[in-house]
Amino acid sequence: MNRRNILPAMLCAAALLFLTASCDEAGSGGSTNYVNEGSTSNFISLTLDATHSGTVAADGASYYTFTTGAAGTYNIALTNLQSDLSWDLFSDSSLATSTPPWEMHQDGTYDSGDEISDTDDPLAETTQYWIRVDEYDGIAGSFSLLVSSP
Predict the structure, then answer these.
(1) For the segment 16-43, what is each residue's pLDDT rounded down to a tens digit?
(2) Alpha carbon 141 to chain centroid, angstroms
(3) CB of 115 closer than 8 Å to CB of 86
């Protein structure tokens, strides 16, 4: 190889390494260390009106619980998503999908867009509820979860 070809070849090699590393990070949600939070027997407690930084594994689910203060319509916001996530709200820790205890499902975007909604019906005063966050497109990642009181 002559001297004229060395610099372009080095630049191409450097660009290829950079692009490969960037694609690997983007394709895996930025890290392979994202895990499911909580379980069906050990829910993560949320504080009302405080944002929780959560994670979920590829094709996994994370589990949360909160207790209402006043009765009323609550807003549940799942934001800063790195993959296709949805959430379900339950009035019983069994997480049965019959009505009740299944209260509502939010997956309006079918992509990595935010999933924000008010509860369909007012939630009861000083009552415990459960949230399951599901990951659908095989990309682990992080998110923000906020339950806002009325």
Answers:
(1) 433 333 333 444 444 468 999 999 999 9
(2) 7
(3) yes
